[in-house]
Amino acid sequence: MPHQQHDLNYKQVFSEPTVFKDLLTEFIAPEIVQQLDLSTLERVNSSFVNETLQSRESDVIWRVKITNRDWLYLYFLLEFQTKVDRFMAVRIAEYVIALYQDLIKQKLFTAQGKLPPVFSAVLYRGDNKWTAAQELSQLIEPLPGLKPYILEHRYFLLDEKAIINTPDFDTDKRNIVSAIFQLEHLNSEEQILALMPLLIEYANLPGEETLRRALSIWIKRALTKANWLTQEEKTVFLENTTLEEVNNMLAERLNALPKKYIQQGIEKGIEQGIEQGIEQGIEQGIEQGIEKGIEKGIEQGREEARRSLALKLIAKGNYSDEEIAELTELSMEVIQHLRNP
Question: GO: which molecular function terms (predicted)?
């Protein structure tokens, strides 16, 4: 049930014109989008389509006028899939045919009396690479001379994980859909926190109350999948918490990480130091050697852990020497030497 609820929240997000326009302009072929008057973009009411499409709770259907053409429509069907369906091309073809049947019933033809073109796309959210055929004909056994009579249809694929992992993907792009794709697949606290300002900016756009509501619900549910959050934190996120509050809570949590890692590093260093000290003492064969080895090992462990953390904080570039000194309890002289060896 929680998984289905998240899918429905995802559908609500992509049912918002602002989000869908960003999807079109950023990820659909420019030669298609350039022909469209995006100011006419509108959702197709669920009561408008037949029973086959009404039962498709995870799909959204839109229509838009083609520029300088009298009421010629494009319909967009998106499937929110989390696993590869080998016969997706058959399913999509079925939905397109069902849509055409409904258009015929409603007598919604072009000025030339023809059916409007349909653009179908699959929005895939799974972790495994999408391997299913995109062309229906690829699923049909060929027979010489029969090709002209074989049903043909091709859907457009949007593989979220593949998109954000391409070398030329711009993680700083100010596009709401890019941020959504990343939030679905990233599990780093720092990366997710970096996305929040853009998501909040879109949610706070004037007149976008429904978008704000949809984004708020979806983001909080997406965060509950994070394995670095405690169950208590997840419960807090799902309560009546605003996006700004979520952002602040994440920031506070992230700011606490250096101290957490310092303590973990020191404890690990102490543990390693004790072990080394015992080994050295045993080798010397005297009790005094063990005691001195333990003491020396503890101090070395602390020092190495602090220096290691200081180097990491310097590499991040977000901390001043004073802040690093405070966090690691190292002297300014040591910090400056580490920064400029």
Answer: double-stranded DNA endonuclease activity
Give the Cα separation of 316 and 279 in Å (integer): 36
Do 223 and 280 lie in one domain? The reply is: no
- Residue 41's domain spans which residues? 2-241
38 belongs to a structural domain = yes
Total structural domains in the chain?
Answer: 2
Closest to 15 in 3D by CA, of 162, 123, 126: 123
In a domain, 200, yes or no: yes
Q: In 3-state terms, what secondary structure has residue 61?
A: strand
In which residue are the tokens 């929110």 written? 80
Query: Do 186 and 281 belong together in one domain?
Result: no
Residue 253 lies in a domain: no
pLDDT, tens only, 63-108: 898 887 755 576 766 666 667 899 999 999 988 898 899 899 989 8
Do 66 and 41 contact (CB within 8 A), yes or no?
Answer: no
pTM of the model: 0.68
pLDDT tens profile 173-231? 778 899 888 888 876 777 777 888 888 888 888 888 888 888 888 787 777 777 667 77
Positions of E strands within the chain: 42-43, 60-65, 73-81, 118-124, 156-159
